[in-house]
Design goal:
Length: 332
Amino acid sequence: MRDMASDTQSIRSAAMLLLALGESEAATVLKQLDAKIVQRLGTAMAQLKQASREEVASAVGDFVMTMERQADIKVGSDDYIRKVLTQALGDDKANGIIDRIVTGQRGKGLEVLKWMDPRATAEIIRLEHPQIIAIVIAYLDADMSAQVLGKLPSWLQSEVLLRVAQLEGIHPNALSKLDESIQKQIALKGASISSSLGGPKAAASILNFMPTETLEELRKVDEVMGQRLQDLMFVFEDMMKIDDKGIQTILREVDSARLVVALKGAEPGMLQHFLKNMSQRAAEMLKDDLESRGPVKLSEVEAAQKEMLATARKLADAGTIMMGGAGGEAYV
């Protein structure tokens, strides 16, 4: 990525890839780069409001080709691509695309659906036979599938889900024909459709996983945008603005050992906010662990807090909890 520094288009492509990877994965990549590259990528992500499907497809295609060239040089095996994708995307996301990349079966129409707005995807497939819709839904990532299904009539949702559950596979030739059909429909219906990608909120979400110095470096490049991102970020102190039910939900998802580290040295009010939402026994155990735990590096505390923030953000995005703070949405 260092060679991209002088190439604006390459920076834009890299920004699209980072946003597509997701928050924690993008943060992991950014941590390996020098400050100047992070500055440019951060600014590009913040300024990227929309990207056409052609741009996204080109960026992803170039990335895959680069990976394949590196695989030929370094190890020359499918196992290399499989390991890299799994490490970058996690098992669930990687398993959905590994076979298509390794075997060269890269669907064009179906792949484009993954980059489109769920409403647009639903519009393209809504008049298809439920079995065809089920295949498309099964092809998409689970979170995307849920959003697309939510745009379809309620009676059709249950029909499609039943067919997805009964689906045992699809012949490659049939999948190829479906891919061609989807591609034609996109050309007819979706000429003006662009992917909803990036923007300040997406960049702020990624910054939540980054060291605090990253935001300061970005502010040196663009003070106005830096301030806007800071206003959108969700910090650990914003946990105080999450209601009791939300805190209880977070506690069920967080490892108790990481909770101890995250709350080490926390203000009394913050500690009490968590203690009051725990059982008496669990609260006593937490207090004992905090007292018996020796000094903890600030970097370790911040890392544990970022893990909790990631959990909170995931729950908020799923609509399970209401997140307070500047980055949260208003409720009426």
